[in-house]
Amino acid sequence: MTNVSEKSKLTTYGNIINGKIVQAKDGAVADSIDPSTGEVWAKIPSSKKEDAELVIQAARGAFEGWADLPARTRGDYMRKIGDMIPKYAAELLELETRNNGWVLDEYGYLAEVLKQVWYDAASAATLVGGQGRTVQMGAGDFGFTVRKPYGVVVGILPWNAPLFTFTIKAAYALAAGNTVVIKPAESGAVGSLRYGELISQILPPGVLNVISGSGREIGDYLVSHEEVNKVSLTGSKATAERITKATAHSPKSLIFELGGKSPNIVFEDANIEQAVHGLINGIFTPNSGQICVGGSRMLIQRSIYDEVIGRLKELMTDKEFVKHGNTLDSTNTMGPIANEAQFKSVCRYIDEASKDEYEVVFGGKYGGQEVLPGQPEFADGYWVQPTLVKVADNRTKLAREEIFGPVAVAIPFDTEEEAIQIANDTNFGLAAGVWTQNLGLAHRMIDKLQAGNVWVNTYARVGADLPFSGVKESGYGTDSILDYSQEKACVINIG
Ligand code: NAD
After folding, report:
1. Whose C-alpha lies nearest to ligand 1, atom 35?
2. pLDDT in tens, 385-429
3. pTM for this structure?
4. Which of 78, 106, 324, 493 lies 20 to 30 angstroms, CA to CA, from 100?
Protein backbone atom coordinates (compact mmCIF):
# COMPACT_ATOMS: atom_id res chain seq x y z
CA MET A 1 0.00 0.00 0.00
CA THR A 2 1.30 3.46 -0.84
CA ASN A 3 2.08 5.49 2.24
CA VAL A 4 -0.07 8.54 2.69
CA SER A 5 2.21 11.35 1.52
CA GLU A 6 3.92 13.37 4.24
CA LYS A 7 4.67 16.19 1.82
CA SER A 8 1.77 18.48 2.53
CA LYS A 9 1.24 17.44 6.13
CA LEU A 10 0.21 20.42 8.25
CA THR A 11 1.31 22.96 5.68
CA THR A 12 -0.63 26.17 6.24
CA TYR A 13 -2.12 27.31 2.95
CA GLY A 14 -2.99 30.98 2.32
CA ASN A 15 -5.61 33.02 0.52
CA ILE A 16 -4.61 34.38 -2.88
CA ILE A 17 -5.32 38.09 -2.95
CA ASN A 18 -3.88 40.51 -5.52
CA GLY A 19 -1.33 37.91 -6.63
CA LYS A 20 0.00 37.30 -3.10
CA ILE A 21 -0.41 34.47 -0.60
CA VAL A 22 -1.89 36.02 2.53
CA GLN A 23 -3.31 34.70 5.78
CA ALA A 24 -6.55 35.94 7.35
CA LYS A 25 -5.95 39.36 8.95
CA ASP A 26 -6.69 38.03 12.43
CA GLY A 27 -4.44 35.00 11.78
CA ALA A 28 -7.30 32.52 12.28
CA VAL A 29 -6.89 29.11 10.66
CA ALA A 30 -9.12 26.07 10.31
CA ASP A 31 -8.18 22.40 10.11
CA SER A 32 -8.38 20.45 6.92
CA ILE A 33 -9.23 16.84 7.76
CA ASP A 34 -8.28 13.76 5.76
CA PRO A 35 -11.64 11.94 5.59
CA SER A 36 -10.03 8.50 5.30
CA THR A 37 -8.39 8.79 8.73
CA GLY A 38 -10.18 11.69 10.44
CA GLU A 39 -6.75 13.32 10.99
CA VAL A 40 -5.81 16.95 10.47
CA TRP A 41 -3.43 17.10 7.48
CA ALA A 42 -3.30 20.83 6.58
CA LYS A 43 -4.35 24.27 7.80
CA ILE A 44 -6.34 26.84 5.83
CA PRO A 45 -7.23 30.48 6.53
CA SER A 46 -10.47 31.05 8.38
CA SER A 47 -11.27 34.35 6.71
CA LYS A 48 -13.58 37.06 8.02
CA LYS A 49 -15.44 39.98 6.47
CA GLU A 50 -12.33 42.22 6.48
CA ASP A 51 -10.53 39.62 4.33
CA ALA A 52 -13.57 39.32 2.08
CA GLU A 53 -13.50 43.10 1.57
CA LEU A 54 -9.82 42.92 0.57
CA VAL A 55 -10.45 40.21 -1.97
CA ILE A 56 -13.34 42.07 -3.57
CA GLN A 57 -11.30 45.27 -3.79
CA ALA A 58 -8.44 43.32 -5.42
CA ALA A 59 -10.79 41.95 -8.08
CA ARG A 60 -12.46 45.34 -8.56
CA GLY A 61 -9.08 47.09 -8.92
CA ALA A 62 -7.94 44.66 -11.61
CA PHE A 63 -11.18 44.69 -13.58
CA GLU A 64 -10.74 47.60 -15.97
CA GLY A 65 -7.25 46.61 -17.11
CA TRP A 66 -8.31 43.01 -17.65
CA ALA A 67 -11.57 43.82 -19.44
CA ASP A 68 -9.78 46.28 -21.75
CA LEU A 69 -7.26 43.70 -22.97
CA PRO A 70 -7.86 42.38 -26.47
CA ALA A 71 -9.82 39.12 -26.21
CA ARG A 72 -6.95 37.38 -27.99
CA THR A 73 -4.55 38.40 -25.22
CA ARG A 74 -6.91 37.07 -22.53
CA GLY A 75 -7.11 33.86 -24.58
CA ASP A 76 -3.30 33.64 -24.55
CA TYR A 77 -3.37 33.74 -20.73
CA MET A 78 -6.00 30.97 -20.65
CA ARG A 79 -3.83 28.85 -22.93
CA LYS A 80 -0.80 29.35 -20.66
CA ILE A 81 -2.85 28.17 -17.68
CA GLY A 82 -3.90 25.09 -19.66
CA ASP A 83 -0.23 24.44 -20.50
CA MET A 84 0.63 24.64 -16.79
CA ILE A 85 -1.83 21.91 -15.70
CA PRO A 86 0.13 18.77 -16.71
CA LYS A 87 3.21 20.06 -14.84
CA TYR A 88 1.35 20.28 -11.52
CA ALA A 89 -1.33 17.64 -12.11
CA ALA A 90 0.12 15.02 -9.75
CA GLU A 91 0.37 17.48 -6.87
CA LEU A 92 -3.08 19.00 -7.45
CA LEU A 93 -4.80 15.63 -7.75
CA GLU A 94 -3.21 14.36 -4.56
CA LEU A 95 -4.38 17.47 -2.70
CA GLU A 96 -7.88 16.97 -4.09
CA THR A 97 -7.92 13.32 -3.01
CA ARG A 98 -6.75 14.13 0.50
CA ASN A 99 -9.34 16.88 0.65
CA ASN A 100 -12.43 15.01 -0.36
CA GLY A 101 -11.55 11.32 -0.26
CA TRP A 102 -12.24 10.34 -3.83
CA VAL A 103 -9.80 7.58 -4.76
CA LEU A 104 -6.89 9.07 -6.64
CA ASP A 105 -7.48 6.87 -9.65
CA GLU A 106 -10.76 8.66 -10.28
CA TYR A 107 -8.64 11.66 -11.13
CA GLY A 108 -6.71 10.09 -13.98
CA TYR A 109 -9.05 11.90 -16.34
CA LEU A 110 -9.40 15.12 -14.33
CA ALA A 111 -6.12 16.82 -15.25
CA GLU A 112 -6.97 16.33 -18.91
CA VAL A 113 -10.47 17.79 -18.42
CA LEU A 114 -9.10 20.83 -16.57
CA LYS A 115 -6.59 21.49 -19.33
CA GLN A 116 -9.26 21.14 -22.01
CA VAL A 117 -11.55 23.62 -20.24
CA TRP A 118 -8.78 26.25 -20.13
CA TYR A 119 -8.04 25.66 -23.84
CA ASP A 120 -11.75 25.83 -24.64
CA ALA A 121 -11.97 29.14 -22.77
CA ALA A 122 -8.94 30.40 -24.73
CA SER A 123 -10.75 29.80 -28.02
CA ALA A 124 -14.03 31.13 -26.66
CA ALA A 125 -12.36 34.39 -25.59
CA THR A 126 -11.80 35.39 -29.20
CA LEU A 127 -15.10 33.98 -30.46
CA VAL A 128 -17.25 35.81 -27.95
CA GLY A 129 -15.92 39.17 -29.15
CA GLY A 130 -17.50 38.37 -32.51
CA GLN A 131 -20.90 37.47 -31.06
CA GLY A 132 -22.36 40.99 -31.43
CA ARG A 133 -25.25 41.50 -33.84
CA THR A 134 -26.24 44.26 -36.22
CA VAL A 135 -29.95 45.11 -36.18
CA GLN A 136 -32.14 46.56 -38.95
CA MET A 137 -33.71 49.60 -37.25
CA GLY A 138 -35.20 51.36 -40.30
CA ALA A 139 -33.83 54.47 -42.01
CA GLY A 140 -31.83 56.81 -39.80
CA ASP A 141 -30.79 54.46 -36.98
CA PHE A 142 -28.05 51.85 -37.00
CA GLY A 143 -28.47 49.26 -34.23
CA PHE A 144 -25.91 46.76 -33.00
CA THR A 145 -24.94 44.85 -29.89
CA VAL A 146 -21.58 44.21 -28.23
CA ARG A 147 -20.82 41.62 -25.55
CA LYS A 148 -19.35 42.97 -22.32
CA PRO A 149 -18.16 41.26 -19.13
CA TYR A 150 -20.21 41.69 -15.94
CA GLY A 151 -17.38 42.93 -13.70
CA VAL A 152 -16.45 41.07 -10.53
CA VAL A 153 -17.65 37.44 -10.44
CA VAL A 154 -17.79 35.43 -7.22
CA GLY A 155 -17.60 31.66 -7.73
CA ILE A 156 -18.76 29.57 -4.75
CA LEU A 157 -17.59 25.96 -4.79
CA PRO A 158 -18.92 22.76 -3.19
CA TRP A 159 -16.60 20.37 -1.35
CA ASN A 160 -17.12 17.43 -3.66
CA ALA A 161 -15.44 18.62 -6.86
CA PRO A 162 -13.44 21.77 -6.10
CA LEU A 163 -10.88 21.74 -8.92
CA PHE A 164 -13.45 21.01 -11.61
CA THR A 165 -15.98 23.59 -10.45
CA PHE A 166 -13.17 26.15 -9.87
CA THR A 167 -12.06 25.65 -13.47
CA ILE A 168 -15.41 25.90 -15.23
CA LYS A 169 -16.26 29.08 -13.34
CA ALA A 170 -12.88 30.84 -13.49
CA ALA A 171 -11.89 29.90 -17.05
CA TYR A 172 -15.04 31.19 -18.77
CA ALA A 173 -15.53 34.20 -16.47
CA LEU A 174 -11.92 35.32 -17.04
CA ALA A 175 -12.02 34.66 -20.77
CA ALA A 176 -15.07 36.92 -21.05
CA GLY A 177 -13.18 39.75 -19.31
CA ASN A 178 -14.45 39.50 -15.73
CA THR A 179 -12.20 39.36 -12.70
CA VAL A 180 -12.87 36.54 -10.29
CA VAL A 181 -13.07 35.67 -6.59
CA ILE A 182 -13.27 31.95 -5.83
CA LYS A 183 -14.56 30.75 -2.46
CA PRO A 184 -14.08 27.00 -1.97
CA ALA A 185 -15.98 25.08 0.69
CA GLU A 186 -13.91 24.79 3.86
CA SER A 187 -13.70 21.01 3.69
CA GLY A 188 -12.34 21.14 0.16
CA ALA A 189 -10.21 24.27 0.16
CA VAL A 190 -6.59 23.10 0.02
CA GLY A 191 -6.48 22.11 -3.66
CA SER A 192 -8.21 25.36 -4.65
CA LEU A 193 -5.78 27.52 -2.66
CA ARG A 194 -2.78 25.86 -4.32
CA TYR A 195 -4.44 25.92 -7.76
CA GLY A 196 -5.21 29.62 -7.29
CA GLU A 197 -1.59 30.28 -6.34
CA LEU A 198 -0.35 28.59 -9.54
CA ILE A 199 -2.87 30.41 -11.74
CA SER A 200 -2.23 33.80 -10.16
CA GLN A 201 1.46 33.44 -11.02
CA ILE A 202 0.41 33.52 -14.69
CA LEU A 203 -2.23 36.29 -14.56
CA PRO A 204 -1.90 40.01 -13.69
CA PRO A 205 -2.40 40.61 -9.92
CA GLY A 206 -6.00 40.70 -8.70
CA VAL A 207 -7.51 39.10 -11.80
CA LEU A 208 -8.02 35.75 -10.01
CA ASN A 209 -8.31 35.58 -6.22
CA VAL A 210 -9.15 32.75 -3.82
CA ILE A 211 -10.48 33.14 -0.29
CA SER A 212 -11.13 30.35 2.17
CA GLY A 213 -13.73 30.68 4.90
CA SER A 214 -17.10 29.39 5.97
CA GLY A 215 -20.30 30.29 4.20
CA ARG A 216 -21.62 31.64 7.49
CA GLU A 217 -18.64 34.00 8.03
CA ILE A 218 -18.02 35.37 4.56
CA GLY A 219 -20.63 33.89 2.19
CA ASP A 220 -23.32 36.55 2.61
CA TYR A 221 -20.73 39.34 2.61
CA LEU A 222 -19.20 38.23 -0.69
CA VAL A 223 -22.40 37.59 -2.60
CA SER A 224 -24.33 40.64 -1.41
CA HIS A 225 -21.46 43.13 -1.89
CA GLU A 226 -22.44 46.00 -4.21
CA GLU A 227 -19.10 45.74 -6.06
CA VAL A 228 -19.87 42.15 -7.02
CA ASN A 229 -21.78 41.82 -10.27
CA LYS A 230 -22.34 38.11 -10.71
CA VAL A 231 -22.41 35.05 -8.47
CA SER A 232 -22.09 31.44 -9.60
CA LEU A 233 -22.86 28.82 -6.96
CA THR A 234 -22.33 25.11 -7.25
CA GLY A 235 -23.91 23.76 -4.11
CA SER A 236 -27.16 22.92 -2.40
CA LYS A 237 -30.63 24.35 -2.82
CA ALA A 238 -30.50 25.63 0.76
CA THR A 239 -27.47 27.79 -0.06
CA ALA A 240 -29.11 29.00 -3.27
CA GLU A 241 -32.07 30.17 -1.20
CA ARG A 242 -29.78 32.07 1.17
CA ILE A 243 -27.94 33.72 -1.72
CA THR A 244 -31.20 34.71 -3.38
CA LYS A 245 -32.32 36.43 -0.17
CA ALA A 246 -28.90 38.00 0.52
CA THR A 247 -28.71 39.53 -2.95
CA ALA A 248 -32.27 40.90 -2.95
CA HIS A 249 -31.13 44.42 -1.95
CA SER A 250 -28.39 44.52 -4.61
CA PRO A 251 -29.71 42.38 -7.46
CA LYS A 252 -27.12 40.66 -9.60
CA SER A 253 -26.88 37.96 -12.19
CA LEU A 254 -26.90 34.46 -10.66
CA ILE A 255 -25.93 30.99 -11.85
CA PHE A 256 -27.12 28.09 -9.68
CA GLU A 257 -25.77 24.57 -10.23
CA LEU A 258 -27.57 22.60 -7.53
CA GLY A 259 -28.39 19.08 -6.49
CA GLY A 260 -30.15 16.13 -8.03
CA LYS A 261 -31.98 12.85 -7.51
CA SER A 262 -31.22 11.46 -10.89
CA PRO A 263 -32.92 8.39 -12.38
CA ASN A 264 -30.71 5.79 -14.07
CA ILE A 265 -33.21 3.76 -16.11
CA VAL A 266 -32.62 0.23 -17.42
CA PHE A 267 -34.97 -1.20 -20.05
CA GLU A 268 -35.30 -4.94 -20.66
CA ASP A 269 -33.53 -4.80 -24.04
CA ALA A 270 -30.39 -3.20 -22.56
CA ASN A 271 -26.99 -4.84 -22.54
CA ILE A 272 -27.36 -5.94 -18.92
CA GLU A 273 -23.68 -6.16 -18.04
CA GLN A 274 -23.00 -2.71 -19.49
CA ALA A 275 -26.04 -1.28 -17.69
CA VAL A 276 -25.06 -2.81 -14.35
CA HIS A 277 -21.62 -1.20 -14.56
CA GLY A 278 -23.31 2.07 -15.53
CA LEU A 279 -25.54 1.85 -12.45
CA ILE A 280 -22.51 1.18 -10.23
CA ASN A 281 -20.37 3.97 -11.69
CA GLY A 282 -23.32 6.33 -11.46
CA ILE A 283 -23.61 6.20 -7.67
CA PHE A 284 -21.11 3.90 -5.93
CA THR A 285 -17.56 3.70 -7.26
CA PRO A 286 -15.28 5.56 -7.28
CA ASN A 287 -16.56 8.73 -5.58
CA SER A 288 -18.94 7.13 -3.07
CA GLY A 289 -21.95 8.86 -4.55
CA GLN A 290 -20.68 12.35 -3.77
CA ILE A 291 -21.47 13.69 -7.16
CA CYS A 292 -24.32 16.00 -8.11
CA VAL A 293 -25.35 13.82 -11.05
CA GLY A 294 -25.32 10.61 -8.94
CA GLY A 295 -27.78 8.07 -10.37
CA SER A 296 -29.37 7.55 -6.97
CA ARG A 297 -32.67 6.18 -8.28
CA MET A 298 -32.22 2.97 -10.24
CA LEU A 299 -35.36 2.40 -12.28
CA ILE A 300 -35.31 -1.17 -13.58
CA GLN A 301 -37.91 -2.80 -15.86
CA ARG A 302 -39.70 -5.51 -13.89
CA SER A 303 -38.88 -8.33 -16.34
CA ILE A 304 -35.13 -7.91 -15.62
CA TYR A 305 -35.40 -6.49 -12.10
CA ASP A 306 -34.23 -9.60 -10.21
CA GLU A 307 -31.45 -10.31 -12.68
CA VAL A 308 -30.06 -6.76 -12.47
CA ILE A 309 -30.35 -6.60 -8.67
CA GLY A 310 -28.65 -10.01 -8.42
CA ARG A 311 -25.72 -8.95 -10.57
CA LEU A 312 -25.38 -5.65 -8.68
CA LYS A 313 -25.24 -7.56 -5.41
CA GLU A 314 -22.70 -10.02 -6.77
CA LEU A 315 -20.31 -7.26 -7.82
CA MET A 316 -20.84 -4.90 -4.89
CA THR A 317 -20.23 -7.62 -2.30
CA ASP A 318 -17.09 -8.85 -4.10
CA LYS A 319 -14.13 -7.66 -2.01
CA GLU A 320 -11.92 -7.49 -5.10
CA PHE A 321 -14.41 -5.23 -6.87
CA VAL A 322 -15.19 -2.91 -3.95
CA LYS A 323 -11.94 -2.14 -2.18
CA HIS A 324 -11.94 0.49 0.53
CA GLY A 325 -8.66 1.82 1.92
CA ASN A 326 -5.93 4.40 1.36
CA THR A 327 -7.35 6.78 -1.23
CA LEU A 328 -3.88 7.40 -2.69
CA ASP A 329 -3.54 3.70 -3.49
CA SER A 330 -4.93 3.24 -6.99
CA THR A 331 -5.79 -0.42 -6.38
CA ASN A 332 -8.60 0.74 -4.06
CA THR A 333 -11.92 1.48 -5.69
CA MET A 334 -13.97 3.41 -3.12
CA GLY A 335 -13.14 6.23 -0.74
CA PRO A 336 -14.84 7.67 2.35
CA ILE A 337 -17.40 10.45 2.72
CA ALA A 338 -15.61 13.80 2.43
CA ASN A 339 -16.36 15.39 5.78
CA GLU A 340 -17.90 14.70 9.16
CA ALA A 341 -21.13 16.64 8.66
CA GLN A 342 -21.87 14.84 5.41
CA PHE A 343 -20.88 11.50 6.96
CA LYS A 344 -23.42 11.98 9.75
CA SER A 345 -26.06 12.95 7.23
CA VAL A 346 -25.45 9.83 5.08
CA CYS A 347 -25.50 7.63 8.22
CA ARG A 348 -28.95 8.99 9.10
CA TYR A 349 -30.23 7.85 5.70
CA ILE A 350 -28.66 4.41 6.20
CA ASP A 351 -30.45 4.19 9.56
CA GLU A 352 -33.67 5.11 7.77
CA ALA A 353 -33.02 2.27 5.30
CA SER A 354 -33.05 -0.28 8.12
CA LYS A 355 -36.76 0.44 8.79
CA ASP A 356 -39.25 -2.32 7.96
CA GLU A 357 -40.70 -0.62 4.90
CA TYR A 358 -37.41 -1.10 3.02
CA GLU A 359 -35.30 -4.09 2.01
CA VAL A 360 -31.54 -3.55 2.07
CA VAL A 361 -29.98 -5.51 -0.83
CA PHE A 362 -26.39 -4.90 0.26
CA GLY A 363 -24.44 -2.52 2.52
CA GLY A 364 -26.09 -0.81 5.46
CA LYS A 365 -23.00 -0.41 7.68
CA TYR A 366 -20.89 2.65 8.42
CA GLY A 367 -17.83 3.73 10.44
CA GLY A 368 -14.18 2.83 9.95
CA GLN A 369 -14.34 -0.16 12.29
CA GLU A 370 -17.30 -1.67 10.45
CA VAL A 371 -16.21 -0.96 6.89
CA LEU A 372 -12.46 -1.57 7.33
CA PRO A 373 -12.25 -4.02 10.26
CA GLY A 374 -8.73 -4.74 11.44
CA GLN A 375 -7.32 -1.54 9.92
CA PRO A 376 -6.99 0.81 12.90
CA GLU A 377 -5.51 3.68 10.84
CA PHE A 378 -8.96 4.11 9.23
CA ALA A 379 -11.04 3.60 12.38
CA ASP A 380 -11.90 7.32 12.69
CA GLY A 381 -12.44 7.90 8.97
CA TYR A 382 -15.81 8.69 7.45
CA TRP A 383 -16.48 5.32 5.82
CA VAL A 384 -19.82 3.96 4.69
CA GLN A 385 -20.65 0.81 2.78
CA PRO A 386 -22.27 1.20 -0.63
CA THR A 387 -25.92 0.53 0.08
CA LEU A 388 -28.77 -0.44 -2.21
CA VAL A 389 -32.33 -0.36 -0.92
CA LYS A 390 -35.43 -1.79 -2.60
CA VAL A 391 -38.36 0.59 -2.39
CA ALA A 392 -41.88 -0.05 -3.60
CA ASP A 393 -42.34 3.33 -5.22
CA ASN A 394 -40.99 6.83 -5.58
CA ARG A 395 -42.76 8.36 -2.58
CA THR A 396 -40.41 7.34 0.22
CA LYS A 397 -37.90 9.71 1.80
CA LEU A 398 -34.97 7.67 0.42
CA ALA A 399 -36.35 8.06 -3.09
CA ARG A 400 -37.02 11.79 -2.82
CA GLU A 401 -34.16 13.46 -0.91
CA GLU A 402 -30.64 14.00 -2.19
CA ILE A 403 -28.45 11.80 0.04
CA PHE A 404 -25.13 12.64 -1.62
CA GLY A 405 -23.44 9.40 -0.64
CA PRO A 406 -23.24 5.78 -1.88
CA VAL A 407 -26.87 5.03 -1.12
CA ALA A 408 -29.29 4.23 -3.94
CA VAL A 409 -32.84 2.99 -4.25
CA ALA A 410 -34.07 0.40 -6.76
CA ILE A 411 -37.58 0.92 -8.14
CA PRO A 412 -39.28 -1.49 -10.59
CA PHE A 413 -41.39 -0.23 -13.51
CA ASP A 414 -43.44 -1.94 -16.21
CA THR A 415 -43.84 0.44 -19.14
CA GLU A 416 -42.02 3.31 -20.85
CA GLU A 417 -44.76 5.71 -19.69
CA GLU A 418 -44.37 4.57 -16.11
CA ALA A 419 -40.59 4.99 -16.29
CA ILE A 420 -41.02 8.57 -17.50
CA GLN A 421 -43.62 9.30 -14.84
CA ILE A 422 -41.40 8.01 -11.99
CA ALA A 423 -38.25 9.62 -13.41
CA ASN A 424 -39.89 13.06 -13.60
CA ASP A 425 -41.63 12.75 -10.23
CA THR A 426 -38.98 14.79 -8.41
CA ASN A 427 -38.31 18.45 -7.72
CA PHE A 428 -34.82 18.05 -9.18
CA GLY A 429 -33.84 17.91 -12.85
CA LEU A 430 -30.10 17.59 -13.18
CA ALA A 431 -29.41 14.35 -15.03
CA ALA A 432 -30.81 11.02 -16.22
CA GLY A 433 -29.37 7.80 -17.64
CA VAL A 434 -31.12 5.47 -20.09
CA TRP A 435 -29.96 1.95 -20.97
CA THR A 436 -31.54 0.49 -24.11
CA GLN A 437 -30.63 -0.78 -27.58
CA ASN A 438 -33.79 0.76 -29.05
CA LEU A 439 -32.96 4.02 -30.79
CA GLY A 440 -36.55 5.22 -30.96
CA LEU A 441 -37.08 4.54 -27.26
CA ALA A 442 -33.83 6.37 -26.46
CA HIS A 443 -34.98 9.43 -28.39
CA ARG A 444 -38.44 9.41 -26.79
CA MET A 445 -36.80 9.29 -23.35
CA ILE A 446 -34.43 12.14 -24.25
CA ASP A 447 -37.46 14.15 -25.32
CA LYS A 448 -39.56 13.49 -22.22
CA LEU A 449 -37.06 13.34 -19.34
CA GLN A 450 -37.01 16.59 -17.36
CA ALA A 451 -33.25 16.90 -16.88
CA GLY A 452 -30.46 19.20 -18.01
CA ASN A 453 -28.33 16.21 -19.05
CA VAL A 454 -29.47 12.86 -20.50
CA TRP A 455 -27.01 10.05 -21.17
CA VAL A 456 -27.87 6.95 -23.20
CA ASN A 457 -25.77 3.80 -22.65
CA THR A 458 -23.25 5.88 -20.73
CA TYR A 459 -23.40 7.95 -17.56
CA ALA A 460 -21.96 11.22 -16.16
CA ARG A 461 -20.30 12.10 -19.45
CA VAL A 462 -19.33 15.74 -18.84
CA GLY A 463 -16.51 17.85 -20.21
CA ALA A 464 -15.55 21.01 -22.04
CA ASP A 465 -17.39 20.01 -25.20
CA LEU A 466 -20.98 20.23 -23.87
CA PRO A 467 -22.88 22.67 -21.66
CA PHE A 468 -23.83 21.52 -18.16
CA SER A 469 -26.86 22.78 -16.26
CA GLY A 470 -30.03 21.68 -14.53
CA VAL A 471 -33.75 22.32 -14.80
CA LYS A 472 -36.40 22.62 -12.04
CA GLU A 473 -34.78 22.87 -8.59
CA SER A 474 -31.41 21.73 -9.92
CA GLY A 475 -30.75 25.33 -10.87
CA TYR A 476 -30.32 27.56 -13.88
CA GLY A 477 -27.58 29.14 -15.95
CA THR A 478 -24.41 27.53 -17.22
CA ASP A 479 -20.76 28.13 -16.49
CA SER A 480 -20.12 29.15 -20.11
CA ILE A 481 -18.61 32.20 -21.76
CA LEU A 482 -21.99 33.44 -22.99
CA ASP A 483 -23.36 33.35 -19.43
CA TYR A 484 -20.34 35.34 -18.23
CA SER A 485 -20.89 38.16 -20.73
CA GLN A 486 -23.93 40.25 -21.52
CA GLU A 487 -25.21 41.97 -24.61
CA LYS A 488 -25.16 45.76 -24.66
CA ALA A 489 -27.61 47.32 -27.13
CA CYS A 490 -26.33 50.35 -29.09
CA VAL A 491 -28.02 52.67 -31.58
CA ILE A 492 -26.30 55.34 -33.70
CA ASN A 493 -28.44 57.94 -35.39
CA ILE A 494 -27.01 58.26 -38.86
CA GLY A 495 -29.36 61.00 -40.01
P1 NAD B 1 -23.39 23.76 0.21
O2 NAD B 1 -24.52 24.45 -0.47
O3 NAD B 1 -23.53 23.39 1.62
O4 NAD B 1 -22.06 24.65 0.11
C5 NAD B 1 -21.60 25.12 -1.15
C6 NAD B 1 -20.79 26.37 -0.93
O7 NAD B 1 -21.64 27.43 -0.50
C8 NAD B 1 -19.68 26.25 0.12
O9 NAD B 1 -18.51 26.90 -0.36
C10 NAD B 1 -20.27 27.00 1.30
O11 NAD B 1 -19.29 27.54 2.16
C12 NAD B 1 -21.01 28.11 0.57
N13 NAD B 1 -22.03 28.80 1.37
C14 NAD B 1 -22.74 28.33 2.41
N15 NAD B 1 -23.58 29.30 2.87
C16 NAD B 1 -23.39 30.38 2.08
C17 NAD B 1 -23.97 31.66 2.03
N18 NAD B 1 -24.90 32.05 2.89
N19 NAD B 1 -23.55 32.53 1.08
C20 NAD B 1 -22.62 32.14 0.18
N21 NAD B 1 -22.01 30.94 0.18
C22 NAD B 1 -22.40 30.06 1.12
O23 NAD B 1 -23.06 22.50 -0.72
P24 NAD B 1 -21.97 21.37 -0.44
O25 NAD B 1 -22.48 20.56 0.70
O26 NAD B 1 -20.61 21.98 -0.39
O27 NAD B 1 -22.04 20.52 -1.79
C28 NAD B 1 -22.98 19.52 -2.00
C29 NAD B 1 -24.13 20.08 -2.84
O30 NAD B 1 -23.62 20.64 -4.05
C31 NAD B 1 -25.09 18.99 -3.27
O32 NAD B 1 -26.41 19.47 -3.21
C33 NAD B 1 -24.68 18.73 -4.72
O34 NAD B 1 -25.67 18.17 -5.51
C35 NAD B 1 -24.33 20.11 -5.16
N36 NAD B 1 -23.47 20.06 -6.34
C37 NAD B 1 -24.00 20.46 -7.55
C38 NAD B 1 -23.23 20.39 -8.69
C39 NAD B 1 -23.76 20.83 -10.02
O40 NAD B 1 -22.96 21.11 -10.92
N41 NAD B 1 -25.07 20.93 -10.22
C42 NAD B 1 -21.90 19.92 -8.62
C43 NAD B 1 -21.40 19.52 -7.37
C44 NAD B 1 -22.20 19.60 -6.24
Report:
1. 235
2. 999 999 988 999 999 999 999 999 999 999 999 999 999 999 999
3. 0.95
4. 78
